[in-house]
Each structure stands twice: as structure tokens, then as C-alpha cells.
Design goal:
The complex is a heterotrimer of chains A (227), B (313) and C (544).
Chain A lengths: L4 H8 L7 H36 L1 H9 L3 H26 L3 H31 L13 H4 L3 H37 L9 H25 L8
Helix pairs in contact in A: 2-3, 2-7, 2-8, 3-7, 4-5, 4-8, 5-7, 7-8
Chain B lengths: L1 H32 L15 H30 L6 E8 L2 E6 L4 E3 L1 E5 L4 E7 L4 E5 L4 E5 L5 E5 L5 E7 L12 E6 L1 H9 L7 H11 L2 H4 L18 E3 L5 E3 L2 H9 L22 H13 L22
Parallel strand pairs in B: 1-5, 4-10
Antiparallel strand pairs in B: 1-2, 2-3, 5-8, 6-7, 6-9, 9-10, 11-12
Chain C lengths: L20 H5 L4 H29 L10 H20 L2 H15 L7 H23 L13 H5 L4 H28 L12 H33 L12 H35 L6 H15 L14 H29 L8 H24 L1 H7 L3 H31 L5 H28 L13 H31 L52
Helix pairs in contact in C: 2-3, 2-4, 2-5, 2-16, 3-5, 4-7, 4-8, 4-9, 4-14, 5-7, 7-8, 8-9, 8-10, 9-10, 9-11, 9-12, 9-14, 10-11, 11-12, 12-14, 12-15, 14-15, 15-16
Classes of the chains: A mainly alpha (227), B alpha+beta (313), C mainly alpha (544).
Chain lengths: 227, 313, 544
């Protein structure tokens, strides 16, 4: 027999909270604060990016030209759609529409997986073209373009670090969504208790937002683009 | 300059001692006078806005005086006077290499004449070091990839400690030396016996030819590279609209990473010389380009002529 | 004749609520987690102290004759890493903060108990990485990991140590996050911000720094590790990188980090002084706001570590000005604590003795910070023993002293036992004397020009070094004694009641040791903080 909403809520009320309201507000506050720390975490990389882009602008343009703008744009669209499905899933949780919620969470994960798949294709491209920093780094056309390959390597270092860290967060996000999908399918949430869904949703939106910044900064540096 | 630092230090010590003794005394007096056996009931005092403002604003005022005085000294330390004698320094694990403009080279010892301004132009071959002469109260980190400068005017003859003050590995505490300040005549004698074959700028001129710089950097407007006569110390317009000062770091960067800044009206075709020039050669080249901006060079014999290209063009 | 049968069954408290290892290692009780942290950081303190002992022994003589240069470089690096990342940063927050904050605000636990436990495990993993690097041969980059030495030139276990710090950083972030959310959301009815104990204000401010600053050093140290692994060149000038970028990113955290370290200590003093002066802290609002001001301003001054690093003159001017500003709130706090003593009724119990020591030593340490904020002076004394003396004054003379004050003050609450007061007073004296003898000479050494991180030094510096080492041996005794008598007190100490000091605060209104759920009923607060005016003042026997 499925538990009622109230029973689900009470079952999940932790002993140190006075009531579900306090628990819900506290957990959401906690997630927002955690996202602030994530902003600072990525912030260090963004700072390094800004400094080196200003210093070695031409090299960054050249590096950016090797990015596949179509794959990048597709990934951006994929993530935006995934945020939509995630937000809809949270809405379903609020309205106690369990089946729809689970479906939308699965759709979110599929979008997430699609993002990672496309990213893997891009990474493979770059890897086979020796565009990975280290002793094997090569960038033909540097001299011709009037930039130093060393400076282009810095662009790529930041590209791999920033998108790599983002991809890591995506993987963690998919893991989290898997967890709430299973819990949701098992009826652990109700209209009175869906904080995990909401908070995972917040995390997912944040990871999406980071990509919204990464895409133009890494892919769209200069208007002059061969495509 | 050193005495100014000491003056400021003494001022800070006095003010600090005053406040330290004040706090110690107050704590001690209160702790004794109001000890439980003498003062059984505490009186309840919430606070006092006037007192809070007083002990916020007075320290603020005092610290602003500290700031201004310290800033003044720092400003002077950052601006070597014109006409200073220049010495190039290269720090490497774990020794100091010095080269005087006139060509003398020294290791771990630096001979300078008393009473003259000395400007150090320094870079590192490997990690970050720091040039520290406690007696002169100066210190400046020495970086790889960039020149940093500091200056001093020794006022007393003597030998003074030179320390590396930025941790740099195994023999960091062994990277020490001495600054030997000599009377002017003694210094001249030392120079004469130094065994220097040619000045830094003469060496630089030589390198300028050998490395083929003169091929593009001609002394007319026909070269594929900008004419370097007279550019040192003046602003340069770049092709992206920025204007930068042609200082030692600009010359250095142009040799090692020419694509970073392109002069307006020129193509980015200069190859990099990274790996082909040592720190000492870089110093010589920088010295040479500087000399192209100096009105007369008696040592060189008249107005310096730019180095000739290796082959006629 | 009805004599009540004394219950021989021990009252349930958080310590006897389960004796199995599992009940401790899987606990979600903030009090037990605090004890777990207490054991871990004490161990790391002695690890760091061991390295310090070897350093001071080496520095007895000008020649580098006790250990090799490489070993010496590893010693000061590992001393710094152990003490800063694995002792000082967690100390008051993870031990006293974890234990006390829920009690002080009338809550049953922190907001996220499981996260709290995870935080301890993460700390242990980080410390394990760190210790393993040390045991496998050590690190020699200095705790500051300056590039390109750390990324390209060092031949030691940099990546292991960097990962250890990276991981431990998350422990710090999660603790800070927990505290902020707890203080916002879990206060008992009537516990307004204006009635919050200053210990909570200080930990709150420190938590803000933990949450905002630590991620930056995390990514920075991660980049160093990546650079070592993949030679990517972000900080290496030979590959187009900028070593100063490392320094900016590093100090952006590491300067606020010192406020993470000192603010909780100041919070302890703000609790101890009112209790032993029997009156409310003078200028409560100002002390609370000063904590916030320190946290905010602390983020704006990082490049005062870089005046001679090659930054522009204008940048240096800005950072110098701001560095003076950050000194002001600390000064305000010192004045307020001193004013609290005025017309108080002062007891000389050990916590108060440590508080006196703190006020004096922190004043000296803080004032010497003002010296360093001065551009003209800093050029001469940066990277010398002057800086070493300054930070040991604030960190050891300030923070460790405050930590000891707090341990003594709340030991009865945490363990239900009284420590032996005579031995405690003796230790406090040894700490004070030993500390001053160790570090005062170092100011002179620094101004005379002795650089830091020097294995061998010119002979004219020897006398002061010998004094310093002598002081260190006294200090060491002062630290070892509490270890002994605290442990002794667990078995043989007198039972403390709920409130042996007659202190004001919710934590004193529950049993010692507290029950697992802290309060039998959620308290409702109707009185102001530090309401010593209405607190009974009976003679308290704190036994020997």
C-alpha cells in the first residue's frame, strides 16, 4: 500500500528538525550555499582563463578556431533541454505526479548522457590531433598564424581543465539524478517531501549554467571562424 | 633610503610599544584591581559608542600615517634614478651571476662604488629567487621569464651580506654572497683589473649581427622589423591598439615570444629565439638596444652605429 | 525513613550512548564527531610539533650539521602543512565549534549531521594523503608551493601532499557550510542574532571565509598537481605561464585562511572573558560586527604577501591601504575585551589566564602585522624571521593559546570531568614563558636580516637562535603537560556538574557530558547574551 503524503513526509523528518518546513528550508539553503562554493571553485579557472586570454589573445583565437562550433552548440542545446526536463520533473514532484516525474528524470539523464557522448567525440578529436597539453602537444599552423604554440597550449590546458571539471560535475549530476529517479520510482517522495528532487535540480541547473559560460568563452572567441 | 626605512621602523616600534604597554598595563591593572577578592560584584556596562568610535578612529588615523610614510619609501624604491649605473643579475640554483655594463662578470660577489646609484636588472634562469641586501634594506624577487629591478645607493664603504630570500630548493641558504662597496678609485682599479673584454652593449651588438637580427631590424624604414634606434624608454603603438612602454621586459619578450606584441604596421613574422639565447645573451642584447637610445657613448666612440647585417642586402 | 535509592545506573550521555567502535565511527552526533576531530588534530599537532623540534635543534648552530639541506627543506614544509592545514584550520571550528554551536543555539544537532561525519572522514583521508607523502620521503616546496619550483623543479612528493590538502579543504568547506546553515536556521525560539553568543558570530564569520575561499585554493593546488603530471604550463614561465598568477590565486585563499584560523579563537576569548569577569562583553555589537568586518576585509588584502614579488606599485599601494584597514576591527576587539575587565569581578582560573595571554600576545602579533602592511618596512623584512615571528605570534600566541583556553573552559562540559587546576596553571605559565622566549628573538633576527627557510646561517645570528630553541623546549613541555593531565582527568578527575564556572550560555544549561539529544526540551530564550547580571555567583570549587 503506498504511503500517504503525510506519512512519507513524517518518515523523512530528521530528528533534529522541529518540522518539515524547517528541514526543507534548511536543506535548500545548504544546496544554494554549496553552489556558491562551486562558483568559487570554477572561479579560479575562469580567473586564469581571463588573465591568459588578455595576455595571449591571438593564441586563444587560434585555439578556439579548432573547436567544433556545431558540436558545442548542440551540446548547449542539449543541456538547456535537460534543464527544462529537470525543472519539469521538480514540478511533477511538487504535484505528486510520480510517473511523469520519473519519466522526466530519465529524459534528463538521457540528455546528460548525450552531452557526455558528444563531449567524448570532441575530446577524441582533440586527442588524435595532439591537442592535449604535455610533451606531445602539437599545433601546426601556429607560426603561420603568428602565434606561439606555447601560448596555444595554455588555451588548451584551460580548455581541458575547465571542460573536464565540468564533465566531472555532469557525471556526478547524472549519478545524483539516478539516485532520485530510483527513489522516486519507489515512491519515496510526495508533494510534502521532495527536497532531494528540488536540490538535485538546483545542482543540475548550476552545472548547466557553467556550460553556458564555457561555450562562448572557449568556442566563440573571435567572429572570424571557419566553422 | 635605508635610514628612512629605519626611521619608519623606529616610529612603528614606538607606537607599538606604547599600545602594547597600554594594553598590558590595563589588563594587569584591571585584573588585579577588580579581582574577585577585591571586587566581588561586577558592574554591568553594555558599552560606549563614543569609546568605540575613539578606539576605531584613532588607530585608523595612525595607520593612515604609517601607510603614507611606507608608501612614500616604496615609491622611491620603485623608481631608480636616471643615470644610475646598471648591473645585470642572473639568479640560478644556487648562485648569483652579475655582469656590469662595462663587461665585468662576477659570481656571488658584487663590487660597486660608494655614493653612486646602482640599478639592478635581474632575471632568473630557473625558479623564483630574491635579491636581498639587509644592510641596504632592499629586497626584490628575481623571476624567470621577466626582468625585475631594484636600486640602491651605498653610502658606506664595506662588505655586506647578500642573501637569496625566496626559497628556491636545496641550497637556498647557500645562495649567499656579498656586496663590496668600494671607494671610487678602488672601484676603478678593480674594473681595470677585471678582465672584461668588452662591454655588454658591445657584446650585444655582436650577437645582434650573429643572430641575424640586423637583417630585419635595419636602421632605416625598409626593414621587415621596426627600427630599434631610439625606441628604448618610449611608448610603442601595437597593432591591436594598445600602447606599451619599450622597457627591458618589452625587449626581452620580443626576443623570446615575439608574437605576444606586434608593432603597428608590421607583420607577425619574427621567429622566437627561445632556447637559442642564454640569460646573459639576453642581457647583452637588451643592453645593446638601450644603447641605441643613448645620445653619446664615449666608450663606443661616437654615436653608436647599428650593427651591420651579416650580408649586404 | 525514606532514603531515596541512589540510582547506580549512569545517566545517559553522548559518551556512554554506545561503546562500540561502530557507534563512534558511524555516529551522526556532532559531539562525538567533535571528539573524533579532537583526537585527529591533536595527533597532527604533535606531528607538526615533531618537525618543529627538529628545525629548532638544527638552528642551534649556524652550520647545517644536524640534517641535510634537503631534509631541512622538507622539515619546514611539512611543519607548515601539518600545522596549518591539518591542525590550525580545523582546530577550534571542528572540535569546539562542532561540539558547542548546536548547544549554544539550543539545537539538537547541526543542520547536516551526515555531512558532518563525512567531513571528518574527508579530513582523515586528506591527512592520510599528507602523512603518506611525508612518510614516503616528504615534500620540500614550502607550504606555499610557489611555482615553478613546485611544478617543475622539486623532486619530492608534491602531488601527494597537494592532493592531501585538496581533500582536506573539502572537509573545511563542508564544516563551514554546516555552521552557516545551522546558525541561520536552527536557532531555538528567542535566540535572535542579537542574543547569539559571540563564539557563534566568530565561527559564522570564519565559516563564510571557509566556504568562499577554500574552493579557490583547491582549484589552484589541483592545477599545480595537473601541471606536475601533464606539464601543462599554466604557471611555468618556460611554457608561457605566469608564476605570479599562482601567487595571486594561492594567497587569495591563504590570506583569508589566517582569519579562518584566528576568528574562532577570538570567539573563545569572547566567551571566556565575560565568564571570568562576571559581566557582559563590552560592546557586544561591535565585537560581532568586527568579526564580519574581518571576514570581508580579509578577502581584499592578499597581495600584501607579494609586495616584492613583481606586482605593480599601484597594486601594492592599494593592498597596503586595505591591509591597514583589516587591522582595525581586530584592534577594536582587543579594546573591547580589555574594557570588559573594567569593574568586573575577575577570577584567575586557567581559561582566564590563557585569555590574558591571548590578549597580550595577539596584540603584539597583530601590531607586527601592521609593520608588515607598511610597504617600506615590508620590503626589508618580508621573507625573513620577522614574518616567521609575526605569524607565530598570532597563530601560536594567539590561536593555540585560545584553543587551550577553550579546551580548558569546556573540558568539564565535554567530559564531565574537571582537569587539575594547579597543573593547568603551571602549563599555562610554561606556555607563556616558552612562547615569548621562542619567538621574541625572531623579530630581532628578522630585522637584522636573517632570511626564513634557511638551513644554515651566518654566525652573528647564533645567539638569538639559541635563545629561540631554548624557549621552544620550554614551550614543548607546556604543550605535553595538558595532554597528560587531560587524559588523567578522564579517569581520576573530579566530577564537574552542569556548570562548574557558573557561566551563562545554553550549553551550560544541560548536563555535563550532555545527553545525545542535547536538551530534554527545546529551550526558549528570553534573556540577553552574557546575562551575568542575573547569574548567581556562588563560590565555585574547581578542584586540583
Amino acid at each position: 500500500m503506498a504511503a500517504s503524503d503525510i506519512e512519507i513526509a513524517e518518515h523523512n523528518l530528521q530528528h533534529h528538525f522541529a518540522d518539515m518546513d524547517q528541514q526543507r528550508e534548511t536543506s535548500t539553503f545548504g544546496m544554494w550555499l554549496f553552489l556558491v562554493t562551486e562558483i568559487m571553485f570554477f572561479g579560479g579557472l575562469f580567473c586564469a582563463y581571463l588573465v591568459y586570454r588578455a595576455t595571449y589573445y591571438q593564441a586563444f583565437v587560434e585555439g578556439s578556431q579548432t573547436m567544433n562550433i556545431w558540436l558545442g552548440a548542440t551540446n548547449t542545446a542539449v543541456l538547456i533541454c535537460s534543464s527544462l526536463s529537470m525543472a519539469m520533473a521538480v514540478r511533477c514532484a511538487q504535484l505528486d505526479q510520480r510517473k511523469m516525474m520519473v519519466i522526466l528524470l530519465i529524459v534528463t539523464m538521457l540528455f546528460g548522457a548525450a552531452f557526455l557522448g558528444i563531449k567524448a567525440v570532441e575530446y577524441h578529436e582533440h586527442w588524435t590531433h595532439h591537442q592535449f597539453p604535455g610533451p606531445n602537444f602539437q599545433f601546426e599552423g601556429a607560426e603561420a598564424a603568428g602565434v606561439s604554440p606555447q601560448n596555444v597550449q595554455i588555451y588548451f590546458s584551460l580548455y581541458w581543465a575547465m571542460t573536464g571539471l565540468h564533465a566531472l560535475h555532469m557525471i556526478i549530476g547524472i549519478g545524483l539524478v539516478t539516485w532520485i529517479t530510483i527513489a522516486g520510482a519507489r515512491g519515496h517522495y510526495s508533494a510534502d517531501y521532495y527536497s532531494p528532487v528540488e536540490n538535485v535540480g538546483l545542482y543540475w541547473h548550476f552545472v548547466d549554467l557553467v556550460w553556458i559560460y564555457l561555450f562562448p568563452l572557449l568556442y566563440l572567441i573571435s567572429k572570424k571562424h571557419g566553422g | 633610503m635605508a635610514s628612512q626605512v629605519d626611521g619608519l621602523y623606529l616610529f612603528l616600534v614606538s607606537v607599538s610599544v606604547f599600545f602594547t604597554l597600554l594594553i598590558f598595563a590595563l589588563v594587569f591593572v584591571f585584573a588585579v584591581k577588580f579581582r574577585k577578592s577585591a571586587h566581588a560584584k561586577a558592574e554591568h556596562i553594555e558599552g560606549s559608542l563614543p569609546l568605540e568610535l575613539t578606539w576605531t578612529l584613532i588607530p585608523l588615523g595612525i595607520t593612515m600615517i604609517f601607510f603614507a610614510w611606507g608608501a612614500l619609501i616604496y615609491f622611491q624604491e620603485a623608481r631608480p634614478p636616471r643615470g644610475a649605473m646598471e648591473v645585470y643579475a642572473v639568479g640560478k640554483q644556487w648562485m648569483w651571476k652579475f655582469e656590469h655594463e662595462t663587461g665585468q662578470r662576477e659570481i656571488n660577489a658584487l663590487h660597486v662604488p660608494v655614493g653612486r646609484d646602482v640599478k639592478m636588472i635581474m632575471s632568473s634562469q630557473d625558479v623564483i629567487h630574491s635579491f636581498y641586501v639587509p644592510a641596504f634594506r632592499i629586497k626584490q624577487d628575481v623571476l624567470p621569464g621577466r626582468y625585475t629591478t631594484t636600486w640602491f645607493r651605498p653610502t658606506k664603504v664595506g662588505t655586506y651580506h647578500l642573501f637569496c630570500a625566496e626559497y628556491c630548493g636545496t641550497e637556498h641558504s647557500g645562495m649567499i654572497g656579498e656586496v663590496v662597496v668600494m671607494e671610487a678609485t678602488a672601484y676603478q682599479a678593480w674594473l681595470a683589473n677585471g678582465g672584461a673584454t668588452a662591454s655588454m652593449s658591445a657584446n650585444g651588438k655582436e650577437l645582434f649581427s650573429q643572430l641575424g637580427c640586423a637583417t630585419c631590424h635595419r636602421s632605416d624604414t625598409q626593414g621587415r622589423g621596426p627600427n630599434l634606434v631610439g625606441i628604448f624608454g618610449k611608448p610603442v603603438q601595437l597593432n591591436d591598439g594598445r600602447t606599451v612602454m619599450a622597457d627591458e621586459n618589452y625587449i626581452r619578450e620580443s626576443i623570446l615570444n615575439p608574437q605576444a606584441k606586434i608593432v603597428a604596421g608590421f607583420q607577425p613574422i619574427m621567429p622566437t629565439f627561445q632556447g637559442q639565447v642564454t640569460e646573459e645573451s639576453l642581457g647583452a642584447l637588451v643592453s645593446y638596444v638601450k644603447s641605441l637610445s643613448q645620445p653619446q657613448q664615449k666608450a663606443e666612440g661616437g654615436t653608436p652605429q647599428p650593427a651591420a647585417a651579416n650580408e649586404s642586402n | 525513613m525514606a532514603t531515596a535509592v541512589q540510582a547506580t545506573v549512569e545517566r545517559e550521555n553522548y559518551l556512554n550512548n554506545g561503546y562500540t567502535l561502530k557507534s563512534w565511527l558511524l555516529t551522526k552526533d556532532h559531539k562525538r564527531i567533535a571528539i573524533l576531530y579532537l583526537i585527529s588534530i591533536t595527533a597532527m599537532f604533535f606531528v607538526g610539533g615533531f618537525f618543529a623540534m627538529l628545525i629548532r635543534l638544527e638552528l642551534l648552530t649556524p652550520a647545517g650539521d644536524l640534517v641535510s639541506s634537503d631534509t631541512y627543506n622538507k622539515l619546514f614544509t611539512m611543519h607548515g602543512i601539518s600545522m596549518i592545514f591539518f591542525f590550525l584550520i580545523p582546530s577550534v571550528p571542528a572540535v569546539l565549534g562542532n561540539f558547542l554551536i548546536p548547544l549554544m543555539i539550543g539545537a539538537k544537532d547541526l543542520a547536516f549531521p551526515k555531512l558532518n561525519l563525512a567531513s571528518w572522514y574527508i579530513f582523515m583521508i586528506g591527512a592520510t594523503f599528507g602523512l603518506t607523502s611525508m612518510l614516503l620521503g616528504g615534500v620540500d616546496t614550502g607550504w606555499t608551493f610557489y611555482t615553478p619550483f613546485s611544478t617543475t623543479y622539486s623532486n619530492t612528493h608534491v602531488i601527494g601532499a597537494a592532493l592531501g590538502i585538496f581533500i582536506a579543504g573539502f572537509a573545511s568547506i563542508f564544516t563551514g557550510l554546516n555552521f552557516i546553515v545551522t546558525i541561520h536556521r536552527m536557532r531555538a525560539p528567542g535566540m535572535t542574532w542579537n542574543r547569539l553568543p559571540l563564539f557563534c558570530w566568530s565561527n559564522y564569520a570564519a565559516s563564510v571565509i571557509m566556504v568562499l575561499g577554500t574552493p579557490v585554493v583547491a582549484i589552484t593546488i589541483l592545477l599545480v598537481a595537473l601541471e606536475r603530471l601533464f606539464h601543462i604550463g599554466v604557471f611555468n614561465p618556460a611554457l608561457g605561464g605566469d608564476p605570479l598568477l599562482f601567487q595571486h590565486l594561492f594567497w587569495f585563499y591563504s590570506h583569508p585562511a589566517v582569519y579562518i584560523m584566528i576568528l574562532p579563537g577570538m570567539g573563545v576569548i569572547s566567551e571566556v572573558v565575560p565568564c571570568f569577569a562576571r559581566k557582559r562583553v563590552f560592546g557586544y555589537e561591535f565585537v560581532a560586527l568586527a568579526s564580519i568586518a574581518i571576514a570581508v576585509l580579509g578577502f581584499l588584502v592578499w597581495a600584501h604577501h607579494m609586495y616584492v614579488a613583481g606586482i605593480s606599485v599601484y597594486a601594492a599601494l592599494v593592498f597596503s591601504l586595505l591591509s591597514y584597514l583589516v587591522a582595525i576591527p581586530s584592534a577594536v576587539k582587543v579594546f573591547n575585551w580589555t574594557a570588559t575587565l573594567y569593574k568586573g569581578s575577575i577570577r584567575y582560573d586557567t581559561p582566564m589566564l590563557y585569555a590574558f595571554a591571548f590578549i597580550g600576545l595577539f596584540t603584539i602579533g597583530g601590531l607586527t602585522g601592521v609593520f608588515l602592511a607598511s610597504l617600506g618596512i615590508d620590503v626589508h623584512v618580508t621573507d625573513t624571521y620577522f614574518v616567521v615571528a609575526h605569524f607565530h605570534f598570532v597563530m601560536v600566541g594567539g590561536m593555540v593559546v585560545a584553543y587551550l583556553a577553550g579546551l580548558h573552559f569546556w573540558w568539564p562540559k565535554m567530559t564531565g570531568k574537571l582537569y587539575p587546576e594547579g597543573w593547568a596553571k603551571l602549563s599555562a605559565l610554561l606556555v607563556f614563558v616558552g612562547f615569548n622566549l621562542t619567538f621574541l628573538p625572531q623579530f630581532v633576527l628578522g630585522y637584522m636580516g636573517m632570511p626564513r627557510r634557511y638551513h644554515a646561517y651566518p654566525p652573528e645570528f647564533q645567539v638569538l637562535n639559541v635563545l629561540s630553541t631554548a624557549g621552544a623546549s620550554v614551550l614543548a613541555v607546556g604543550y605535553v603537560l595538558p595532554m597528560i593531565y587531560f587524559v588523567w582527568s578522564l579517569r581520576y578527575g573530579k566530577d564537574a556538574g552542569p556548570n562548574p564556572w557558573n557561566a551563562v550560555g545554553l550549553e551550560w544549561m544541560t548536563e555535563s557530558p550532555p545527553p545525545t539529544h542535547n536538551f530534554d526540551e527545546t529551550p526558549v530564550v528570553t534573556w540577553e547574551a552574557y546575562d551575568y547580571e542575573h547569574q548567581p555567583d556562588e563560590e565555585v570549587t574547581v578542584g586540583r
